[in-house]
Amino acid sequence: MKLLKTFFLIIIILFLIYFLSMNNAKVDIDLLIKKFNQVSISLVIFGALSLGVLFGYIIAVFSILSTRSQNRNLQSKIKSLTNELNDLRNVAVNETVYEDDGNN
After folding, report:
1. DSSP state, 101?
2. How far apart are CA 71 and CA 77, in angstroms?
3. At what angle do helices 2-22 and 41-90 cross, to 10 degrees?
4. pLDDT, tens digit, for every residue of 70-94?
5. Which of 31, 42, 55, 69: disulfide with 20, CB 3.0–4.6 Å?
């Protein structure tokens, strides 16, 4: 499985290199705080892709940490409920329940 992932990663990187090499036009970028003149469009595409991957990775990390925390809380709740259930199983059955029936 790891070999397959590595193969697809290499294919994606090669495709990205080919795509970026085909787009070598110059563009002007005007951000709110700064303006860039005559920047290669391949650099803009690569920068946008890198920022997207970085933000996606950060969101995924927070999602995983949140899920692990929730899993830990649920595991502790399961443990406490299991202990409570075991305690209730060990309690002696009250004999008065059968005496109140009156059909004997």
Report:
1. T
2. 10
3. 150
4. 999 999 999 999 988 888 887 765 5
5. 42
Contact yes or no for 41/23 (Cβ under 8 A): yes
Q: Tell me if residue 32 falls in helix, strand or coil.
A: coil
Residues 6+ positions from 25 with CB-CB distance below 8 Å:
40, 41
Q: Determine the Cα–Cα distance for residues 37 and 28; give it in Å rounded to an integer.
A: 5
Q: For 16-72, what is each residue's pLDDT tens digit?
A: 888 888 888 898 988 889 898 998 888 888 888 889 989 999 999 999 999 999 999
DSSP state of 1: -
> Amino acid identity of 5?
K
Q: What is the pTM of this model?
A: 0.61
Residue type, 88: L
